[in-house]
Design a protein that fits this description.
Elements (H helix, E strand, L loop, with lengths): L4 E3 L4 H10 L7 E3 L16 H16 L2 E11 L5 E2 L13 H11 L9 E11 L5 E12 L15 E3 L4 E2 L5 H7 L1 H15 L3
Parallel strand pairs: 1-2, 1-3
Antiparallel strand pairs: 3-4, 3-5, 5-6, 6-7, 7-8
Helix pairs in contact: 4-5
């Protein structure tokens, strides 16, 4: 009997987004901390999906219930898809996003608007007690801006510019961001799969 969902993260910003999107699922959604789970997980997959599944399966073994995990990142076309699956570890895990963002802006110095294309990618994996693993993927296309803008997002949001909105994802209202974000899209796809299973 599945009585809760554990989302494999300690990131409070991410948990806020997750809870907003999964609010119509009948089960409580807990962070690892709230579920009393501590784990150091080596994400050594080659894709976002592989890393999300590694995380979900590792935490599922510790929790025994249904575990969701995500792996997400920023792919910049001009930089051959960097930082990609290494987005969180780019320039070192303890490096602030202000420094990471400035580094990416600097690496794109002199690059024209139309060549600054990028996307956020998010894969969500669900690990069930019976060993089944499901994955979904969501993406959002945009460009890398010329400076950080906005305070609503986290991570690379302040430099991810959406031409059709005329602002960065960090300048969007949280509800609007969730409706179009890569994590929002992947989570909504996962929500449908969970509902099909009666959750």
């Amino acid at each position: 009997m599945i009585d809760k969902i554990v989302f494999a993260t300690g990131n409070e910003g991410k948990m806020r987004e997750v809870r907003l999107i999964l609010e119509d699922i009948s089960l409580p959604v807990l962070s690892m901390k709230e579920a009393g789970i501590e784990a150091e997980i080596e994400e050594n997959g080659k894709t976002f999906e592989e890393n999300a599944a590694i995380k979900a399966k590792a935490v599922q073994k510790l929790s025994g219930g249904l575990v969701l995990a995500d792996d997400s990142g920023l792919e910049i076309d001009y930089l051959n898809g960097e930082p990609g699956i290494y987005s969180a570890r780019y320039m070192g895990e303890d490096t602030s996003y202000r420094v990471k963002n400035q580094n990416l802006i600097d690496r794109l110095a002199g690059v024209k608007d139309e060549d600054r294309t990028a996307r956020f990618v998010c894969a969500i994996a669900a690990a069930f007690p019976n060993g089944e693993v499901l994955t979904t993927r969501g993406t959002i296309e945009g460009r890398i801006g010329y400076e950080e803008k906005g305070t609503n997002g986290f991570g690379y949001d302040p430099i991810f510019y959406l031409p059709e909105y005329g602002c960065s994802t960090a300048e969007l209202e949280p509800s609007e961001k969730n409706s179009i974000s890569h994590r929002g899209r992947a989570l909504r796809l996962m929500r449908e799969l969970l509902k099909e299973r009666g959750l």
